Amino acid sequence: MQLQILYTSVQLDLARCILFGGVSIYAFPLCPIRLYQLSKAGKLCVPAMNVNDSVTKQKFDNLYCCRESILDGLKRTTDIMFGGKQVVVCGYGEVGKGCCTALKALGAIVCITEIDPICALQACMDGFRVVKLSEVIRQMDVVITCTGNKNIVSREQLDRMKNGCIVCNMGHSNTEIDVASLRSPELTWERVRSQVDHIIWPDGKRVVLLAEGRLLNLSCSTVPTFVLSITATTQALALIELFNAPEGRYKQDVYLLPKKMDEYVASLHLPNFDAHLTELSDEQAKYMGLNKNGPFKPNYYR
């Protein structure tokens, strides 16, 4: 949806986009995917900066922010006590890592579902069991999706959940949970408080659906202003880079934010912690093959 709006807007005001230098995308995991698809199909009219995959987005917004907002959102909506609860987190990317870290710290028994063997191995090394959702769904107290994909929790899995299971989405839009299938004649929806619905089965079983499957951290909690500052700074620098770039540097394609700018965003926020960077000596910089002022990481670093 977001990409369709963007595509339409660019078509309507192509001259301004070209004058400005391009567009930058800072949203959900699906947005860069759609951008790359548009580029491959030759439909991308201007250069686009994929800010979603920048380090400042992946680490601070996805990991550090989500490990706090998952607890905030669940507490505000359900007043749940996490200790001893069986929780399954679908997806062990940066968002999933943040959610798992927070839940485990409060005593929840957390397991993971994953399609990626690298992420699955990371989960194992971090002390989490990697399972198939269909095999554990009956025992779960909380189900959290963090994938950026669609139909992660199907109607068949919703039917098999135990009474009182809490279902929420931290990943992308409202497509991860098959909410549409729950709007059927045999099921009753009961709004118990803002952003909290009980879905009641004919046998009396209730599943607690939060925010109608939309993003929990945007619908049921708040985003810290510090993270918003990092977000806005990264987005602004991406647009400044596109605007100031020499003609021909960026073609009608999708680009990652240069690491120099990623590091600059981070450096702007260090004074909040009274943090002081160590400086390389000339000898050390030469030994490492680096510029003393950065960037210190290769472009592929995430």
From TrEMBL:
Key word NAD present: yes
One Gene Ontology cellular component: cytosol
Residue ranges annotated for the S-adenosyl-L-homocysteine hydrolase NAD binding domain, each copy included: 62-223
Entries under SUPFAM superfamilies matching the protein: Formate/glycerate dehydrogenase catalytic domain-like (SSF52283), NAD(P)-binding Rossmann-fold domains (SSF51735)
UniProt keyword terms in alphabetical order: NAD, One-carbon metabolism
Cofactor(s) needed for function: NAD(+)
Segments passing through the bilayer: none
PROSITE patterns listed in its UniProt record: ADOHCYASE_2 (PS00739)
GO biological process: one example: S-adenosylmethionine cycle
SMART domains: AdoHcyase, AdoHcyase_NAD
InterPro entries: Adenosylhomocyst_ase-like_sf, Adenosylhomocysteinase-like, Ado_hCys_hydrolase_NAD-bd, NAD(P)-bd_dom_sf, S-Ado-L-homoCys_hydrolase_CS
Entries under Pfam families matching the protein: AdoHcyase, AdoHcyase_NAD
Family: Belongs to the adenosylhomocysteinase family.
Protein name per Swiss-Prot or TrEMBL: Adenosylhomocysteinase-like 1
Organism: Neogobius melanostomus
